[in-house]
Design goal:
Deoxyuridine 5'-Triphosphate Nucleotidohydrolase, Chain A; 2 domains; five-stranded antiparallel beta sheet; four-stranded antiparallel beta sheet; 13 strands; about 15% helix
Length: about 200
């Protein structure tokens, strides 16, 4: 049935037809309605500039053999870059929920949902990131292979969708943006005002 949560058979079929891509994918980890997600990198935010900008600085690469365990300090907030690369075709939505171990450890995970063209937007690989904060008064150990969240999928391909109507001005802007994206994909990105003059 369309419009419902996909079960493991439907997820496997969608992976087989490239409607869902998970890399690396281990069929043995696929549960009844979801797939586990593990940390790839743990990142910290740099100090914000007056404009509110910041960079993410690498604190730990979970893909290498680390001799010492990683501990999240009391009150510390980090961004977790997920080890699994996920991309979705149109009309499949992925929802992320925290693993129960996260709550038991006293951690708070902030996540949401993804949908097409996430994953390979404009031919650029996008990495799923979560926020993770230690709400306890003590350091909490994060294992490199820790399951911190699960992703489940909703298949909307069989449902009629409401049309999005654009104003004339929006249609012109959309056409201009589509042309600029095509040129960027073909010739490379350069900054400009949008009317052909350099910025």
């Amino acid at each position: 049935m369309f419009g419902n949560v996909m079960n493991n058979k439907q997820i496997a079929e969608a992976i087989g037809s490239n409607c869902i891509k998970i890399s690396p994918f281990d069929s043995g980890k696929l549960k009844t309605i979801h797939y586990p997600l593990t940390p790839g990198k743990i990142l910290s935010k740099s100090l914000e500039t007056p404009e509110g900008n910041f960079r993410l600085l690498s604190k730990r690469d979970c893909s290498i053999d680390n001799e010492d365990p990683y501990f999240l300090d009391s009150g510390e907030f980090v961004v977790v870059e997920i080890a699994e690369h996920i991309s979705l075709k149109e009309s499949i939505v992925g929802h992320i929920v925290p693993a129960s171990i996260i709550a038991r450890k006293g951690l708070c995970l902030s996540a949401g949902r993804i949908e097409a063209p996430f994953g390979d937007y404009a031919k650029k690989k996008q990495i799923l990131q979560f926020g993770l904060k230690n709400l306890t008064n003590n350091p909490v150990r994060i294992n490199d292979d820790e399951i911190i969240a699960y992703i489940y999928f909703i298949d909307l391909r069989g449902l009629d969708k409401a049309a999005v109507l654009l104003t004339d001005d929006e249609a012109r802007k959309f056409a201009s943006w589509t042309r600029r994206q095509y040129l960027a994909d073909s010739d490379g990105v350069s900054h400009g005002t949008g009317d052909g003059t350099p910025g």
